[in-house]
Amino acid sequence: MLNHIDTTESKTIGNTSAFLLAGLQEHGKLFFDTHDAMMVLSNRTPIAIRSLLSEMTKRGLLMRLKDGLYHIIPYDRAAADYFPDWHLVAHHLAGKTPYYIGYYSALVLHDLTTQPSFQEQVVVAKPFRPNIRAVKGVPFQFIYHNPLHFFGITKKWIDGVDQVNCSDLEKTFLDCLFQPDYAGGIVEIAKAIFKSKSMIRENNLNTYLQLFGSDAVIRRLGFLLELLEILPNLSNNLLQLIPHNTSYVVLDTGLPKEGKSNARWGIIQNMDLETIKTSVFS
């Protein structure tokens, strides 16, 4: 929570600004929109409030996330080097649109990554235009999923106070295997699956695979499980689901479509398998 603003600080930031910040803090609104500000400053006109918010942003008291959406910068933090939690920003950028933190960002929330994240990925139930929005140089990528692929959502605590929507473990893997290039590539996905092998709920995974309806996901998942020599029962079950009269799919969608063909799984091995195993087992 924002530290209490005392009278001395109120004078240095102006009485109206201090009154607004105190009113928002009282209602737990570190993220707020123009309407919230109008509720606190009910005796001010909308034009005056927008002007005040613009001035407070210039003075480093507020951070503008998008038109009409703001975040209160802690009084003891410099605006130039301050950024709130990316997942919370994503939550508020999504607004009323159903969403969940997905792909590599979900792997981050599940503590399954080894490389830093350079963007926040948000799965949304309706298309966003533009689909990538930058906030102080941080890209927020909004990835549309149709209703058939929009499920498997859980809550994740961020700071002991706030929660955000996130794909659960099994749905995270399905999304990542559907678009490996959105998840740092097949190596990162393989490492995450191996690290969490004891936590994977096979019944959930089987149910989700039926709901998701992607032959490519089944092939990539089964191939990786067999390569890593984990969850053999699940791997065998997946093998029975593959129609062997369909075309091959690439293992990693972010790499060229060339490599050895694996007839067992219908996979084009477009990367060195030793690279995957070395990364996972080292």
What order do the strands of the largest sheet run in, or round the barrel if closed? 4-5-7-6
Low-confidence stretches: 1-11
Biggest pleated sheet:
4 strands, mixed
Global outline: elongated
Q: What features would you describe in this structure?
A:
The protein is an alpha+beta fold and 282 residues long. It has three domains: 7-81, Arc Repressor Mutant, subunit A (Orthogonal Bundle); 85-167, no CATH class; 186-282, no CATH class. 42% of the residues lie in helices and 17% in strands. It contains twelve helices and twelve strands. β2 and β3 (69-72) form a beta hairpin. α1 (7-13) crosses α2 (15-26), α6 runs antiparallel to α7 (169-178) and α8 runs parallel beside α12. The longest helix is centred in the C-terminal third of the chain and has 14 residues, at 215-228. The radius of gyration is 23 Å and the shape is elongated.
List keywords for this structure.
282 residues, alpha+beta, Arc Repressor Mutant, subunit A, 3 domains, four-stranded mixed beta sheet, three-stranded antiparallel beta sheet, elongated, disordered N terminus
